[in-house]
UniProtKB/TrEMBL annotation, chains A, B:
<dbReference type="GO" id="GO:0003700">
    <property type="term" value="F:DNA-binding transcription factor activity"/>
</dbReference>
<dbReference type="InterPro" id="IPR023772">
    <property type="entry name" value="DNA-bd_HTH_TetR-type_CS"/>
</dbReference>
<dbReference type="Pfam" id="PF16859">
    <property type="entry name" value="TetR_C_11"/>
</dbReference>
<dbReference type="InterPro" id="IPR011075">
    <property type="entry name" value="TetR_C"/>
</dbReference>
<feature type="domain" description="HTH tetR-type">
    <location>
        <begin position="7"/>
        <end position="67"/>
    </location>
</feature>
<dbReference type="InterPro" id="IPR001647">
    <property type="entry name" value="HTH_TetR"/>
</dbReference>
<feature type="DNA-binding region" description="H-T-H motif">
    <location>
        <begin position="30"/>
        <end position="49"/>
    </location>
</feature>
<dbReference type="InterPro" id="IPR036271">
    <property type="entry name" value="Tet_transcr_reg_TetR-rel_C_sf"/>
</dbReference>
<dbReference type="GO" id="GO:0000976">
    <property type="term" value="F:transcription cis-regulatory region binding"/>
</dbReference>
<dbReference type="InterPro" id="IPR050109">
    <property type="entry name" value="HTH-type_TetR-like_transc_reg"/>
</dbReference>
<dbReference type="Pfam" id="PF00440">
    <property type="entry name" value="TetR_N"/>
</dbReference>
<keyword id="KW-0805">Transcription regulation</keyword>
<keyword id="KW-0238">DNA-binding</keyword>
<protein>
    <submittedName>
        <fullName>DNA-binding transcriptional regulator, AcrR family</fullName>
    </submittedName>
</protein>
<dbReference type="InterPro" id="IPR009057">
    <property type="entry name" value="Homeodomain-like_sf"/>
</dbReference>
<keyword id="KW-0804">Transcription</keyword>
Amino acid sequence: MGRPRDPSRDDAIKLAALRVLAEAGYCGLTMDAVAATAGVGKATIYRRWASKGDLLLSVIDDATADQLTRPDTGCLREDLLVLLNSLAEVLAGPSGRASRTLLGALHHEPTLAEVFRQGPLARWQEAFTEVIDRAVDRRELRPGTGVWMAAEAGPGMLLQRWAVTGQPLDSAVVTVVVDELLLPLLRRC
Amino acid sequence: MGRPRDPSRDDAIKLAALRVLAEAGYCGLTMDAVAATAGVGKATIYRRWASKGDLLLSVIDDATADQLTRPDTGCLREDLLVLLNSLAEVLAGPSGRASRTLLGALHHEPTLAEVFRQGPLARWQEAFTEVIDRAVDRRELRPGTGVWMAAEAGPGMLLQRWAVTGQPLDSAVVTVVVDELLLPLLRRC
């Protein structure tokens, strides 16, 4: 926090964390392994992140901040397609895989869970709310109807495929979720 | 497999596994810790289960086999309420907490993932399909309409609360999911 840091070194450490995770899983993610893979000393990592959980969250937070598109196409269906495709891409990418290894640990580390909820989860909620609010402004939707249900059920289906069942999570599935689940829920009144 | 086993000892080992998990998480679940907690030798455990993954799956499988109710109330809405409340209870109980710690590991252990999908997941799918088929037989539903979407979206919402957001997972939520999500999806035609 207090001193200027070399951002390229930050990136190298984060990349190393992703690589270790992919090879060894969350249980195998140690600061030693990350330091060895990144070619830096352990103290260099601890100067930036207090624990492997903090480091992972930083990796995940970066990725969702960069990659979760906040669409404004002027059309609710298009906005939802862009938003959910972007979520599906984040989940399928390296930071999604990193988040997935965290799922089992979240419930043993309340601080981690809190940061996760305030970071990536809050960002999703904001992006979704923006899309809905604009659709209400354009009179495509009435306020209220089915909004929280849609905000939960849409990502819920994607997350279940990603975390549990391993079924495909591609743009064909996203289109079905938008057309058969979200739009009917949102337009019901 | 080949020799008669003392079922009370099996149960003691499974209970010990749950206790270690609750205290130390998946990364801290070692056969040593389970043996010490159960008060048995490690060989006794390995005679029954080849790995901690196998042991965990056995714990989880037991619980979903015993606890997932397969309702037949004669009414679709009642059946869905019983089924989803039973799922919510399994998730909230000790075997659900055990499953959750497995989520992060599933993707590094394909065999584990396969058994998980063929056990608890397949059992859910069967129970849901039975409920739907009977509703079709009673002419409460037409076949086909929104069934797979409902079968995925309902548990998806519950799983997301359980695995990611930590929001409540009680009978009030289940009632909303049945009335506002499942029944509208199933009855759309």
